[in-house]
Amino acid sequence: MSRSLAPAPPLRYLSAADVLAAMPDIDERLTLAERTMTALVADAELPPKIGVHPRPEGSFAHAMPAHLRGADADGSGDLLGMKWVAGFGTNNELGLPAINAVVVINDAATGRPTAILDGGPITAMRTAAVSGVAIQRFAPVMTNRAPRAALIGAGVQGHSHLAVLGRVLPGVALSLFDRHPERAEALGLAARATEGIAEVTLVADARSAVRDADVVVTAASFGPVRQVMTSNWLAPNALVVPVDYATYLAAGVAHDASLFLVDDRGQFLANRDAGLFDGYPDPAATLGEAILDGTGRPDKGRVVVTHLGVGLADVIFGAAIVRQAETLGLGTILRP
């Protein structure tokens, strides 16, 4: 007797607008980001990004699968999925997004796909949230004055970091730089309208932006600029959070830092072997290890927290978005 196949679960497609409508609020995003970082220590399986490099030069396409082992022995809390992401820096000249991605969520018990999401908003929001976790843990403590932050890069990541900076550094005075003045101006307008950001200054060069900053976030487009931000650019106790690999931050800053952390050690080392972090030291720990160990900010010196982005973040955020989308009735059912 042949066994009849069980009906497939619905396959839901969420457009960028659907994803944004179902996106968790900023406090939940920070919680999801911290969960991602700590899960990387022992509860997740994921390889370094599997990549190919199409033309034009500098472009990439990465496969980012991830599995999260939940706390329940029956696997009911497990998550499984993958992001497929392509980065084409030349798209800006065409009026197109530089980063395009989809996230696929699978049923962790059967492997059957249950959702396909536009990955652009997820990439933006989960990256900024991981930066927020690093800032909450390792920003210098300010007394008798407002915190000062610098943001380099006025693209999608620059915009996504605004709400996080306003949330984790309330009252912050923010300096902005982008090599395209019109993009910097647009980011400045958005920053002035962001809750928690008290002051916004547009500056003519990156070095001026970061000179007195307590927190520096570099989110520049990958390109010809490489490792130009040296230690003499930075305040002695600054927290530096690069999300653009080594586009701006020089290896010497990581060497000289009192604490150098990464999001995922294996991925960082694989990218260093590929030449994307030339001269960088081994990290002291991952951000998740530091959180779990209760590592505090050193009394003196800079802290560098480099995060390259991991597929686990996309899967954790994607699953939360799908749950909310189901509640709200969002998306298109591709397979009933």
Layout of strands and helices, then pairs:
Blueprint: E1 11-14, H1 16-21, H2 26-42, E2 44-45, E3 50-52, E4 60-68, E5 79-87, E6 99-106, E7 113-118, H3 120-138, E8 148-152, H4 156-168, E9 172-177, H5 181-192, E10 197-202, H6 206-210, E11 215-218, E12 239-242, H7 251-256, E13 259-262, H8 265-273, E14 285-286, H9 287-293, E15 303-306, H10 311-328, E16 332-335
Parallel strand pairs: 1-7, 8-9, 8-11, 9-10, 11-12, 12-15, 13-14, 13-15
Antiparallel strand pairs: 1-16, 2-4, 3-4, 4-5, 5-6, 6-7
Helix amount, in percent? 25-40%
- The tally of helices reads 10
Report the sheet-strand fraction: 15-25%
Q: Please give the largest β-sheet.
A: 8 strands, mixed
Count the strands? 16
> Given the C-alpha coordinates, what overall shape results?
globular
Mean pLDDT: 95
Low-confidence stretches: none
Q: How far is it from the N-terminal to the C-terminal residue, by CA?
A: 27 Å
| Estimated structural class | alpha/beta
Order of helices and strands: EHHEEEEEEHEHEHEHEEHEHEHEHE
Q: Kindly provide the radius of gyration, computed on alpha-carbon positions and rounded to a whole number of angstroms.
A: 20 Å
What's the short story on this structure?
Helix content is 33%, strand content 24%. It is α/β, with parallel strands linked by helices and 336 residues long.
Describe the structure using short key phrases:
10 helices, 336 residues, 16 strands, alpha/beta, 33% helix, eight-stranded mixed beta sheet, globular
Can you offer a commentary on this structure?
The protein is of the alpha/beta class and 336 residues long. It is built from ten helices and 16 strands. The chain is globular and about 70 Å long.
